[in-house]
Design a protein that fits this description.
Elements lengths: L1 H45 L3 H6 L6 E6 L5 H13 L6 E5 L6 H8 L4 E5 H5 L10 H9 L4 E5 L3 E3 L10 H6 L1 E5 L8 H11 L18 E9 L4 H12 L1 H4 L9 H9 L4 E2 L5 E7 L2 E9 L5 E5 L3 E2 L1 E5 L4 E3 L6 E3 L10 E3 L4 E2 L2 H17 L24
């Protein structure tokens, strides 16, 4: 009996020691380690990075850059074809990591007028695992041959030719134009804004991160960038992305790193004033669908999420749209396929027949594309931070 009691006592001691070690690690060592990592990154940001300037290519002209792989090739191809349908003549560069875009898909994209492809891994001599995630967008922006870039997510769609955005006064004045993310809150907010405030310890405008009101501010779906005007911003962005294994523990992928880099470089940038709304189907007193973006003048520009309702087999029924207003709130609706993009307490406007006709034409494009591409279904390892900051879903 005593031997059993001795064994139990020993087990209690072992479990107790493990708990003590875990608590010490969680409460003291881990925060200390994270603090030192951030301190090291801050020191790197203060130094001039010669490797960045040595590898920076020459660039000129305007162009569109999109990162596409076999999972997003259907949406990305639809984006490109619809832009061409809307008479967008800008050259388009499709970037991919290296082994994540099938030859069949690559040849299809290269067959579209004015479209070229670039494998980032071989081009930059980087291990593929370092560019498979959201950091691929940063490298695509920096190493594309264009001076002025419209950087797009493959699931964006536009109501009209987006070329006119380059003429916006805010972009012309600053050389960088960003769009805001949905005005939502998350469990992870404090971790995000506490870390960002270590790099940028002041408030600015209505920036919700610097105001410690939220952990999201910028949308990654689209942005305009003049690289000649923002060389120092690109350098800071390059440093942050090189440290992605640490950085992405604090911010949701690359999405906030663009304005953060501009701020660190002390170079001007601008945000489109409006917050995103919703375009989709009205369900009772709530509108569910996709994130709707306005242009700098407040006109309907486009939306993210392509035409898909939950997956590539189902197309969203686009009937209404709503703009974000002060009284509006993002809401989750049970049973809604895209329930994290539902807007409540807003004015719901019927989508004009002209735009519904345009979307129906896009749907016919989509139907034809499905037989021409080799689409890989998303795997758990493919999941990145959603561009609309859905970490809490």
């Amino acid at each position: 009996m005593s031997s059993t009691e001795d064994l139990l006592t020993m087990l209690y001691w072992i479990v107790g020691m493990i708990l003590v070690i875990f608590i010490i690690d969680w409460v003291w060592f881990k925060p200390y380690q994270e603090y030192k990592q951030t301190d090291r990154i801050i020191q790197r940001l203060r130094q001039k990075n010669r490797v960045f300037y040595q590898t920076l290519p020459k660039f000129n002209g305007r162009g569109i850059v999109i990162v596409i792989n076999d999972t997003t090739v259907l949406a990305g191809s639809l984006l490109i074809l619809t832009m061409r349908r809307n008479l967008c003549k800008l050259p388009i560069l499709v970037c991919y990591a290296g082994d994540d875009l099938a030859e069949q898909n690559r040849k299809f994209l290269e067959g579209i007028q004015g479209v070229a492809t670039m494998a980032l891994g071989p081009k930059l001599d980087l291990p593929l695992e370092t560019i498979r995630g959201t950091q691929a967008r940063v490298y695509a922006l920096i190493y594309s041959p264009f001076e002025q870039v419209l950087l797009l997510e493959p699931d964006m769609l536009f109501f009209r030719n987006p070329e006119y955005l380059f003429g916006d006064p805010r972009y012309q004045q600053t050389g960088a134009l960003f769009w805001k993310d949905r005005k939502i809150q998350s469990y992870w907010d404090k971790k995000v804004y506490d870390w960002v405030r270590r790099l940028i310890p002041y408030r600015k405008g209505d920036n919700r991160i610097l105001d410690k009101k939220a952990g999201n501010y910028q949308s990654r779906e689209l942005m305009l960038f003049n690289k000649n005007v923002h060389i120092k911003t690109l350098e800071k962005l390059w440093v942050l992305t090189k440290e992605w294994e640490t950085i992405y523990n604090y911010i949701p992928g690359d999405k906030e790193s663009y304005w953060i880099s501009s701020e660190l470089a002390k170079e001007e940038y601008a945000f489109v004033p409006s917050y995103p709304g919703v375009i989709g189907e009205l369900q009772m007193d709530t509108l569910c669908g996709h994130t709707l973006y306005l242009d700098p003048s407040g006109q309907l520009l486009g939306w993210s999420g392509s035409l898909f309702n939950g997956d590539t087999r189902h197309v969203t029924d686009f009937t209404h749209y709503a703009l974000f207003e002060r009284a509006a709130e993002w809401n989750k609706v049970l049973g809604a396929a895209d329930s994290n993009k539902c807007l409540k307490n807003a004015e719901y406007l019927e989508l004009p027949g002209e735009l519904r006709g345009l979307i129906n034409e896009y749907a016919r494009f989509l139907h034809d594309l499905k037989n021409q591409l080799m689409v890989r279904e998303p795997q758990p390892e493919d999941q990145e931070y959603d561009s609309d900051y859905d970490q809490d879903d």
